[in-house]
Each structure stands twice: as C-alpha cells, then as structure tokens.
Amino acid sequence: MDQHHATSAQFEDGDDFPIRVDGLRNAFGEHVIHEDLSLRVRRGEVLGVVGGSGTGKSVLMRSIIGLQQPAAGEIEVLGRDMMADGDGEEIDIRSRWGVLFQGGALFSTLTVGENVEVPLKQFYPEISDELRREIARFKVRLSGLPDEAAFKYPSELSGGMKKRAGLARALALDPELLFLDEPTAGLDPIGAAAFDSLTRELKETLGLTVFLITHDLDTLYAICDRVAVLADKKVIAIGTIPELLALDHPWIQEYFNGPRGRAALAAKGDPEVDSNLGDTTGAGA
Ligand SMILES: Nc1ncnc2c1ncn2[C@@H]1O[C@H](COP(=O)(O)OP(=O)(O)OP(=O)(O)O)[C@@H](O)[C@H]1O
C-alpha cells in the first residue's frame, strides 16, 4: 500500500466525522508548524496521534478545540465551523467535549470534587449544589478513583490519581469527544496499562470519540483503532497499525519497527500485526 492510499482511506463517503480539518496552517512568527494539514476523525474511534517532539501534536489539538487561532484552513467540530467568528455557539460546543491536558491542569486550591464541579458550574449554573456534588462524585468514581478522592487536593494525589482526576473533570459534562494529551506520560507501566483499559472501557460504554496524543507505543497497540502520523508539517499517514506498517516511510518504519516498537508489539502479541510486520521488515526500513 502506498502512502496516499492509507491517507485517503479517511475520506470515504458516508463516514461520520465529528472532527474535520482541512488545509490547516499554523505558524509562530517565521516558524511554520502546520502547512496544508488535513485530518478526519471518525465517530466512535480512538485515534492515536503520534509524531516526533515538536511536530505540533498539541498545537493541532489546541487548534481543534479553539485555543489556538490558525493562520489558515478549515476546522469543523461536531458540525460547527471553528474558524467562524464567535457568536456564542462556541460556548455550547465546548460543553460537548472534554479535555485532559498534559499534567492534568487541575486547580491546586480546589479539591478533586470541586475541580470536577467547575465545568458543571460554568455550563449549568442552574443545577443545585447538591446535585452538582452528586454528579461530581459519580464522575470521580467513573474514573476509577475511590469516593474519598473527591475530598483530596491535587497535591495529595499520586501521578496516576491526578490523571484520573483530570479525566473525571473531562467527563463532567458527558462529552461526545474526549481529547487526551499524553495521558500515560509519567505513569509506571502498570498504571499506564490501567489508564489505557479505563480509556477503552469508557469509550465503549459512553460511545466516546477519542483524540489521543501519545508517545506510548503500548497505548497505540492496546487501544487505538487508527493512528495519525504527524511529520513534515502534516498528517503524512493515517490508518490501522498494520496499514501504517505497510508504508515505506522512514520515520514510521523506525517508530514501529525500532526496538521499542517491537517490544510493544511483542507485549501485545497481535497475530495480524505480527504477520504484517514479517512482510515489511526487509522492505521497509
Ligand atoms: N504559544 C507558542 N508560541 C510559540 N511557539 C509555540 C507555541 N506553542 C507551541 N509552539 C511551538 O510549536 C511547536 C510544536 O509544539 P507542540 O507542543 O504542538 O509539539 P508536540 O508535537 O506536541 O511536542 P511534544 O511531543 O514534545 O509534546 C514547537 O516547536 C513549539 O515550540
């Protein structure tokens, strides 16, 4: 399969794409981060986003959720044109996604429960204090934290618990889309695997579409339906891991066929990927 083939698979007619990006350009002064970048995220998938450090994964996520004003391009999220001038509707759309930023971005002076209450207060001020607290407690539990974690401050939590607390806040408004920026960074392998399982389980039970930036190969193999590769200022390929492995791109081959990629594959033990890898090892690198 050539590169174009894998990339074009995202533009099938009739698919439902809650996130569409076309011709995106981002630059900071002379420093061009994205040029003519296009991407489609399918409803209900976990899309892993990978790329070398500084390739603009976080800037892409920030552009999609309206925290970064692109220089050019089109971005549509849940049918809304994110490049259009503000008309108040953008406030509504922000309640339909949840974001887990790198490091969790929790308010340190609020307890976990109070952190989860923040978006509820912001978007549904009419909810009673009691109901809001109850919803927050439910989200804390949904994120795999014990009930008492709701009363703790972020500084009292381990790294893994902080991530779960950030996840609880991201889920506060029952979002359709979940954005995760390196959710397993800094976690030990057991904690990372547990977080991956939780993400997959939540995606399946809540019907979420997940945009997941990661450097974690285990996460890619464990929970991603497709993977988008950022390089050369664009998404150079998108597809399942076997589809990507069939491409002859040096970065992709190095990434998936390097020692870490092979270890992650061995840990996953996926016969489909195994056989594909066998086909491409000699030809690819
Ligand atoms: N607000 C900003 N002002 C200037 N430059 C920025 C800004 N935000 C990001 N950049 C630059 O844009 C580039 C892409 O940054 P980004 O954080 O998106 O990379 P990334 O792919 O997420 O990297 P990493 O994997 O290391 O987290 C980097 O060179 C970064 O320095």
UniProtKB/TrEMBL annotation:
Q: Which UniProt keywords apply?
A: ATP-binding, Nucleotide-binding, Transport
Pfam families documented for this protein: ABC_tran
ABC transporter domain segment(s): 19-257
Q: The organism sits in which domain of life?
A: Bacteria
**Stored InterPro entries:** AAA+_ATPase (IPR003593), ABC_transporter-like_ATP-bd (IPR003439), ABC_transporter-like_CS (IPR017871), P-loop_NTPase (IPR027417)
Q: Which residue ranges run through the membrane? A: none
Q: Does the keyword Methyltransferase apply?
A: no
Q: SMART domains from the xrefs? A: AAA
Which Gene3D superfamilies does the record cross-reference, listed alphabetically? Answer: P-loop containing nucleotide triphosphate hydrolases
Q: Could you state a single Gene Ontology molecular function term?
A: ATP binding
- CDD domains given for it? ABC_Org_Solvent_Resistant
Name-wise, this protein is ABC transporter ATP-binding protein
